[in-house]
Amino acid sequence: MATKEERRAELTAVYRQARACTYCPELASTRTQVVFGSGNADADLMFVGEAPGAREDEQGIPFVGAAGKLLGELLAEVGLDRTDVFICNVLKCRPPGNRDPLPGEIENCQAYLMRQVELIQPRVICTLGNFAMKLLRGEPTGISRLHGQAEIRVIGERAVRLYPLFHPAAALYTRSLLDTLRADFARLPGLLELPIPEQPERAEAEPEPVVPEPEVAAEPEPEPEPESPDHRQLGLF
């Protein structure tokens, strides 16, 4: 089993892969930067949203706009802080005009998310909105029917308690959703106190999940590699 230091080193390697990814040509050509994730790299609680917005694309950190402010307020109400959790999105690049993620983009990007789950090893994953929930459940049932109902699911190679929540952005515009989201958040401390779900056995010969190597454009301009990754993104604190 990998040590804490080994998992962090591998998470850094995946982050650097994602920064150079060009598997979605439109996203790669329009993004300011890849928004990999932010928070505690050893968090018991992980949030997965849809995709970065304009402010996230500028700063390289997920949930820094109005929805992020609400998320922080909801965490504080249950005694948690952003430094206690890890936050990321299904897509690591902003779709132009904040359009919905396309199926091919979700497929191209999901390996990064699966590696994040495997390396961070959360107990509970909260999906924010329909895109994250449908991807991780592998079923089309909508958020209105499933919010606030925790279930044990195997995500990649890890069994977690999957907890669907409305997206904070939706709750900003509909008061009834905000009340519902607040009530669902109130159940989080109890979920975190439950035992870790029994983990599936892993076949000895099964290879490690591989994040696809990014396509490299001809004669790319050299980009200096920083000595260490942005600590705000990887949560190395």
Can you describe this structure?
This protein has helices at 4-19, 25-30, 54-59, 66-77, 103-120, 130-137, 143-146, 168-171, 175-185, 188-193, 231-234; strands spanning 38-39, 45-49, 85-89, 124-128, 151-155, 158-165. The protein is an alpha/beta fold and 237 residues long. The protein is globular, with a radius of gyration of 17 Å. Strands 1-3-2-4-6-5 form a six-stranded mixed sheet. The chain has eleven helices and six strands. 40% of the residues lie in helices and 13% in strands. Residues 216-227 have low confidence and may be disordered. A hairpin with a 2-residue loop joins strand 5 and strand 6 (158-165).
Structural descriptors:
11 helices, globular, 237 residues, alpha/beta
Short description:
By secondary structure, the protein is an alpha/beta fold.
Low-confidence stretches: 216-227
Overall geometry: globular
N-to-C terminal Cα separation, in Å? 22 Å
Task: Provide the helix percentage.
Answer: 40-55%
Q: Major sheet: order of its strands? A: 1-3-2-4-6-5
Give the mean pLDDT.
89
Write the layout of secondary structure elements.
Layout: H1 4-19, H2 25-30, E1 38-39, E2 45-49, H3 54-59, H4 66-77, E3 85-89, H5 103-120, E4 124-128, H6 130-137, H7 143-146, E5 151-155, E6 158-165, H8 168-171, H9 175-185, H10 188-193, H11 231-234
